[in-house]
Amino acid sequence: MSLTMAIPQWLAFVIAGVVLLYGGFRMYLAVAGPSNDERAKARTGMLAMSRRTHGLVAVMLLIAGGLLLASAFGWQPFATNKPTVERPGPGSALPVR
Questions:
Q1: Secondary structure in 3-state letters for 32-52
Q2: Are 65 and 19 in contact (CB under 8 A)?
Q3: What is the pTM of this model?
Q4: What integer is the mean pLDDT of 61-79?
């Protein structure tokens, strides 16, 4: 009995899309976000992070979103390929001498 559960493919695409969009937003904050003067005024929440940190988080999110998208298309990196053994029919085995 297998205790695996499959999520719907459309849900995997939606989750991957959300992760990719959020990674894109973080990349925007890293490259063309508010200026350092505006960041110095806020200094709370996401604006307290430096541009380099936003870029690092964005790259990690984009990689994770890409992996989610690939797995939604059927990529299984941790699947075990069990070889199938075909048993011969009755009487077809060679005799042992």
A1: HCCCHHHHHHHCCHHHHCCHH
A2: yes
A3: 0.70
A4: 90
